[in-house]
Amino acid sequence: MTAHHAGSRILTGAAALVLPLSVITLAPAATADDMSGPFGPACSSVPKEGAGSFDGMAKDPVATAASNNPDLSTLVTAVKKAGLVDTLNKAENITVFAPTNEAFAKIPKADLDKVLSNKDQLTKILTYHVVGEKVAKDKLADGSFKSLEGGTLSTDGSGDSYKVNDSAKIVCGDVPTSNATVHIIDTVLMPKS
């Protein structure tokens, strides 16, 4: 074989390596329809950087991510009191419908204090907000999901406007964490007794 032929083979091999890279580089950018991402009116209040930002939350498991969001501090307190931090952080591919501080504030203080001091009742309420699968925006239009508590959550809506159990509005949905999808809601959901 001549040096010319060997050089051609090397160039051909290099072209074969470069070609797939250039095809990837030339692929069209993802459109809004391809990737949803967080949606809803309260998403604008999420910090742009740091542990409480969408990028920061995506790196942490769900209970840790929630602890970095100041709007979820009451939920985080409740999760700690129920002893569910490790359970939620170790779970895989779950969805958490996470009530804001304002959602908890809708509950009369005496009632909330009573629930926070009753670990069994608190655990039942909190696990009612968790679904054992990832539920993205595309499944919310007319959804029915079994909660870890054993009850059923229903979702409906369209565009960027969705409700859970006809009562709680999703104010910031499709928030990614390392092990869960989070839909932040404006009302605490109560399981059927």
Could you name the key traits of this structure?
8 helices; alpha+beta; FAS1 domain; 193 residues; 20% strand; single chain; 7-stranded mixed sheet
Question: What features would you describe in this structure?
Answer:
By secondary structure, this protein is an alpha+beta fold. Helices cover about 40% and strands about 20% of the residues. It has eight helices and seven strands; from the N terminus they run αααααβαααββββββ. It has a seven-stranded mixed sheet. A hairpin with a 3-residue loop joins strand 6 and strand 7 (about 180-185).
CATH class: Mainly Beta
The domain count comes to: 1
| Global Rg | 23 Å
- What is the CATH superfamily classification? FAS1 domain
CATH-derived architecture: Roll
Q: How many strand units?
A: 7
How far is the first residue's CA from the last residue's CA? 83 Å
CATH third-level topology: FAS1 domain
How can the largest sheet be summarized?
7 strands, mixed
Beta-strand content bin? 15-25%
| Uncertain stretches of 5 or more adjacent residues | 6-35
Number of helices: 8
Mean pLDDT: 85
Which structural category do the helix and sheet elements fall into?
Answer: alpha+beta
Strand order of the largest sheet: 2-1-7-6-5-4-3
Structure at a glance:
39% of the residues lie in helices and 20% in strands. By secondary structure, it is an alpha+beta fold. The protein has a seven-stranded mixed β-sheet.
